[in-house]
Write a structure and sequence with these properties.
7-stranded mixed sheet; globular; 24 strands; single chain; alpha/beta; Nucleotidyltransferase, domain 5; about 20% strand; 2 domains; about 475 residues
Length: about 475
């Protein structure tokens, strides 16, 4: 018996094959491109995702005999993307991605409507799905008129796997059309966004069955028995399932393209005025609260690109000791920012550079800036009564122990590095598949991982970084007014 977790990431797809205990058997990865036809635009071709999935599935089929015993599949995907399909299920245009900011005017208009924050529990960010559809209606009316269904990226993969238009509630929390308390579509929000209920996919909980694998795929993949496809999850809710963050206060910090601070919450207590996200969890009757920054490892990758040095080379040059804060400041707003500013127009800035500033100084400032932006989210969470005592670190940036220790010091909390943490969202998706296809309870499957290392704050540096954080916070208004 085997289960497949699919993580549809921003830069590529990862498929993780696990056994009934959730232990990895094998994995496959395939990349795809993101296109930026205009400043602020970010698009992908949904058919590239299917090509990547097909290649990954065949690779696992050929390499691991256990694949033929597949019993369940779960899909995790990057959130908020708008896949518009016609009556045949074909995409009408490229997917407008989560980090696309073209719809900032539409977002502001939707956010100003009284019911938006009250029902959705969230600010109508430009990255959300609803503003994207308003942009399409205004600028591509011929495409808007052809829409049969609007699918999130993971839901598009669900459709490919099952032939059914079905999505999970956690992912749909980030559309701007969901009532997060009632865990269902809001007709008032859909009407406000000029959409209809029949254009939405059927909703299920992430750990419930969404459908069965199509017979054509069963034949191609060498499978003879029925395969349950779970509802799945948005990438962050799936990661929470992968590290066992199900109950109040359990959470993680993610250093991926974007940066995320997530805490599981037992109740639904939105605080949209803080620009925190309040989303449904992938399991019933639980929620997630998230602070999101748009350019985490993307900030380091940008410095890498313009300096000609790899990210690893840049960080290794700093040595093992985080030392005192740099005199230079970096505001990591390369693509605008969400928490706490909700500002699609703000752009990044270096402050305090002089003739003596080195590349190492700039690297240190970039790492500091990302960590300070994550603290912005932590401070917002504290206003809602959240207690941040211990976090896991996941994502590509968590490979830098220097960066993780820096974040632990700036947040003032210990951070654990899980073994196999690179499987986060894919493992969470596989665990959702286990629950959907068996009689297992989420609490018995979604356990905390074995630890590789626990990193504690540098107590001797906390005050220095507290002072530096205050400088960082005070810099935003000045930079915003200058732009």
């Amino acid at each position: 018996m085997a289960f497949l977790g699919i993580d549809l990431g921003t830069s590529g797809l990862r498929a993780l094959l696990v056994d009934a205990a959730g232990s990895p058997i094998g994995w496959a990865e395939h990349a795809y491109a993101t296109h930026h036809p205009h400043p602020g635009w970010s698009e992908q071709n949904p058919k590239d995702w299917i090509d990547a999935l097909t290649s990954a599935a065949r690779e696992l089929r050929d390499a691991h005999p256990e694949f033929s015993g597949l019993k369940g599949i779960g899909v995790s995907g990057h959130m908020h993307g708008a896949v518009l399909v016609d009556e045949t299920g074909d995409p009408i245009r490229p997917c407008i991605m989560w980090n696309d900011t073209r719809s900032h005017e539409e977002a502001a208009r939707l956010d100003a409507m009284p019911q938006t924050r009250v029902i959705s529990g969230n600010v109508a960010f430009p990255g959300f799905t609803a503003p994207k559809l308003e942009w399409v209606r205004a600028h591509e009316p011929e495409n808007h008129a052809r829409i049969s269904k609007v699918l999130l990226p993971a839901a598009y993969v669900n459709w490919y796997l099952t032939g059914e238009y079905v999505s999970d509630i956690s992912d749909c929390s980030g559309t701007g059309w969901l009532d997060v308390r009632a865990r269902g579509w809001s007709e008032r929000l859909l009407t406000a966004g000029n959409m209809r209920p029949d254009q939405m996919p059927r909703l299920v909980e992430g750990c419930d069955p969404a459908g069965q694998l199509r017979t054509e795929l069963m034949s191609d993949w060498g499978i003879n028995q029925p395969v349950i496809v779970a509802g799945g999850a948005g990438d962050n809710a799936a990661t929470a399932c992968g590290i066992g963050a199900l109950c109040e206060g359990q959470g993680f910090v993610s250093l991926g393209t974007s940066g995320v601070l997530l805490l599981a919450r037992d109740g639904c207590d939105p605080a949209p005025e803080t620009a925190l996200h309040c989303f449904c969890h992938a399991i019933p009757d639980r929620w997630c609260q998230m602070g999101v920054m748009l350019s985490a490892t993307n900030s380091l990758n940008w410095l890498s690109r313009i300096s000609g040095q790899s990210p690893a080379t840049l960080t290794e040059a700093l040595g093992p000791d985080i030392g005192k804060p740099s005199d230079e400041l970096f505001l990591p707003y390369l693509s605008g920012e969400r928490t706490p500013h909700n500002d699609a127009q703000i752009r990044a800035a270096f402050l305090g550079l002089d003739t003596q500033t080195s590349l190492d100084d700039m690297t240190r400032a970039v790492l500091n800036g990302v960590a300070f932006a994550l603290r912005d989210s932590a401070e917002a969470m504290k206003t809602t009564g959240a207690d941040i005592n211990k976090l896991y670190a996941v994502g590509g940036g968590a490979a830098s122990r220097y960066w993780v220790e820096l974040i632990a010091t700036i947040l003032g909390t210990s951070i654990a590095l899980p073994k196999g943490g690179e499987f986060g969202a894919a493992l969470g998706a596989a665990r959702l598949a286990i629950v959907a296809a068996t009689d297992a309870r989420p609490e018995d499957v979604m356990l905390a991982p074995e630890l590789c290392e626990g990193i504690t704050p540098r107590v001797d540096l906390i005050q220095a970084y507290d002072d530096a954080y205050e400088r960082f916070r005070s810099a935003y208004p000045a930079v915003r007014s200058a732009q």
